[in-house]
Amino acid sequence: MKKTVQKSALAKSASKAATKSAGNSVALLVATKKGGFILVSDPKRRQWETRGPIFLGNIVHHMVLDPRDGKTLLMAAKTGHLGPTVYRSTNFGKTWKEAAKPPAFAKAPDGQKGLVVDHVFWLTSGHHSEPNVWYAGTSPQGLFRSEDGGDTWESVTGFNDHPMRSAWTGGGQDGTPDGPKMHSILIDPRDANHMYIGMSSGGVFESTDKGADWKPFNVGCVVDFLPDPNPEFGQDPHCVRLHPLNPDILYQQNHCGIYRIDRSSPENGNRWARIGEKMPKAVGDIGFPMVLHPRDPNTCWVFPMDGTQVWPRTAPGGKPAAYVTRNGGKKWQRLDNGLPAGQAWFTVFRQAMTADAHDPVGVYFGTTGGEIWGSTNEGEKWTCLVRHLPHVYAIEAVELK
Amino acid sequence: MKVYIPSPLRSYTAQQSEVQATGATIAELLTDLNRQYPGIRFRMIDEQDAIRPHMRIFVNGEQVWGLDTSLAAADEVHILQALSGG
Hints:
The complex is a heterodimer of chains A (401) and B (86). Chain A is mainly β and 401 residues long. Chain A has helices at residues 2-21, 157-160, 165-169; strands at residues 25-32, 35-41, 48-54, 59-65, 73-78, 85-89, 97-98, 119-125, 134-139, 142-146, 154-155, 181-187, 195-200, 203-207, 215-216, 237-242, 249-254, 257-262, 273-274, 287-292, 300-304, 322-325, 333-335, 353-355, 363-366, 372-375, 383-386, 392-400. Chain A has a single domain (2-102, 115-400), classed as Methylamine Dehydrogenase, Chain H, CATH 2.130.10. Chain A contains three helices and 28 strands. Chain A has a four-stranded antiparallel sheet with strand order 3-2-1-28, with no helix packed on it. In chain A, strands 4-5-6-7 form a four-stranded antiparallel sheet, with no helix packed on it. A four-stranded antiparallel sheet of chain A has the order 8-9-10-11. In chain A, strand 2 and strand 3 form a beta hairpin. The radius of gyration of chain A is 20 Å and the shape is globular. By secondary structure, chain B is of the alpha+beta class. Chain B has one domain: Roll (Ubiquitin-like (UB roll)), CATH 3.10.20.30. Chain B has two helices and five strands, in the order ββααβββ. Chain B has a five-stranded mixed sheet, with no helix packed on it. The longest helix of chain B has 11 residues, at 26-36. Classes of the chains: A mainly beta (401), B alpha+beta (86). Chain A binds chain B through residues 79-83, 85, 98, 100, 102, 104-108, 113-117, and chain B through 8-9, 38-39, 42-50, 52-55, 81-85.
């Protein structure tokens, strides 16, 4: 009963937000291999102004707005040669200040090899009841928490020092080419203690005590690259999303397909279901990003890539397209109107696709070739918003009030 | 002693390429640098007290490898970066 009441409150709040957002401009917070950029639209989302670069030459993996105050930005950055850090702006990017204590693992006892943060990969603002709390996921896989708005960061020892951490993460050889990552840090809007994380590799993990302990949450997710295709952990979720209005529903773009789970289901509340099998066989259901509709928990978008043979990780056949489902994965629709019809070999990274809160929803993605594409009608028609940026790592859409 | 700062770290030193710092070892020198220019040490030295890849430290023209290297007041320290990449 409690959950139903809270869900209803969340739905009302989102409905109000959609109405309000109709006249808002949208900003896209763009993280690239060479710095940050902010694209700002007019209220109709037709004209876009590119601001930046911010910290030119820095490798920016994620730039995120604090939804609790609407003006604080956090940016995960490093250069090719300097150590990783976090920058913070309290005026929507006008000025920035470096974190006094960036995320770092604990110093190992003498004679032992300790972990070193290579880069901060993912930033998530905390629960609305904890206004200064942030979480950061790193490469290699580590979880860090700030309680002062991102200025100082502490290790979440419940994960980083967990006796199973090494087994869960698979060590340094079991990750993406530029390092294994913790990503998809999800906070249940109903309960600040309830969290999920995703790891490439490692799988999805759940905590019900604010990170003090974790349990694998991968039942149903096949791992076709391991000897045992149904292990407890060792999966490779590329991007996991929790629906803000119905936090019992999660979607996952995995290395081995597209998955969905409804935690409220009496029969299948603890088992992921592969919903990508309804995708066209010639396209497959491999990709990086997963984007949810801000109001409809049955609608989500993916951007498939070629995961055959040596894994080119480009648009299948050089014909890029997003796909949308509007019924929780029972059926998928190709969305390629306006996109190149062929010989287009870019990739869309796991954080590089996003949606705004308008009605109809604006959907946006950035490419490895430095283009940002957008649609003001939920993917029915795409327009290139900007070209010639550096390799795009992440995009977050935010409403400007 | 005189410490030469590479361009990627000069945002910490108000764009100064040469600064003064003290210490009987590289570790102490870095502590003093970080006291004067907060945050600069972590960009060079990781949380396990290792010099980060591509970062090189020279004392009087000779490369040093550990933070326990002794220093004298008249020494000159060059902090350099191997700026490879693309």
